[in-house]
Q: What sequence folds into this?
């Protein structure tokens, strides 16, 4: 009996030790518990209307509440059908670059997505210092992409020099979330030294394993930052055109949290 008790205690201790080792600490967050423009100590704006490498149709604005604001406990990113700087649409693209940058960890973003043909919202990460060169050499992690002409489908993807959509070699998968446009869901990245997992509501649907130290396939050993945006049209989002009657459209973000 004593030997069985000792074995049980040993197993219990081992479980507790592993659990403690795996426990992650919240290192950065925005709970959007304020009103006004997004917190400037945490967020930057990418600005412009040059197509962003994808022939997108929106002009990204800076510090314009119509396109990015915090109200009722949420960050609202809003795309609008209106002319600005010769572009037919406005929107916002927020980044945490140099205000929230990490190598490895868990990223959680709880959000409701916009709807309609032509919108292309994304929750993703880019390298902060571009250690291995420009895109795609230094990598990209797409935690959530959604194209309005294909409702209910969430996409998770990674891009590297070897694996990217310009070569049709990108690595990724998708999952069906029928309520993505009506209800909050948590879009999650679990990024480890040798593995990337992308999840929705803790359900994993894409895993990318480190194949080698070659940065052409694994540039994910450097700091990355978060990007939140709604694009309009573009090479992917605009494949079925843009329905101008759907605007304005919003991505509603309840919180952004990073654990390490």
A:
């Amino acid at each position: 009996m004593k030997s069985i008790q000792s074995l049980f205690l040993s197993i219990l201790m081992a479980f507790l030790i592993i659990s403690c080792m795996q426990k992650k600490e919240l290192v950065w967050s925005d709970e959007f518990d304020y009103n006004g423009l997004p917190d400037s100590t945490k967020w930057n704006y990418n600005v412009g209307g040059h197509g962003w490498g994808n022939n997108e149709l929106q002009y990204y604005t800076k510090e314009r509440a119509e396109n990015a604001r915090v109200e009722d406990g949420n960050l609202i990113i809003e795309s609008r059908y209106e002319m600005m700087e010769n572009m037919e649409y406005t929107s916002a693209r927020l980044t945490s670059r140099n205000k929230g940058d990490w190598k490895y960890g868990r990223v959680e973003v709880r959000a409701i997505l916009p709807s309609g043909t032509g919108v292309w919202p994304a929750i993703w990460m880019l390298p902060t210092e571009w250690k291995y060169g420009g895109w795609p050499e230094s990598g990209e992690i797409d935690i959530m992409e959604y194209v309005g002409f294909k409702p209910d489908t969430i996409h998770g993807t990674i891009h590297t020099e070897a694996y990217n959509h310009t070569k049709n070699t990108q690595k990724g998968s998708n999952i069906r979330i029928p309520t993505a446009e009506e209800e909050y869901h948590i879009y999650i990245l679990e990024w480890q030294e040798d593995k990337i997992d992308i999840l929705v509501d803790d359900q994993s649907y894409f895993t990318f394993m480190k194949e080698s130290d070659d940065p052409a396939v694994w540039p994910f050993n450097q700091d990355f930052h978060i990007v939140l945006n709604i694009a309009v049209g573009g090479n992917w989002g605009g494949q079925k055109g843009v329905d101008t009657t759907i605007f304005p459209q919003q991505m509603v973000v309840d919180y952004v949290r990073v654990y390490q």
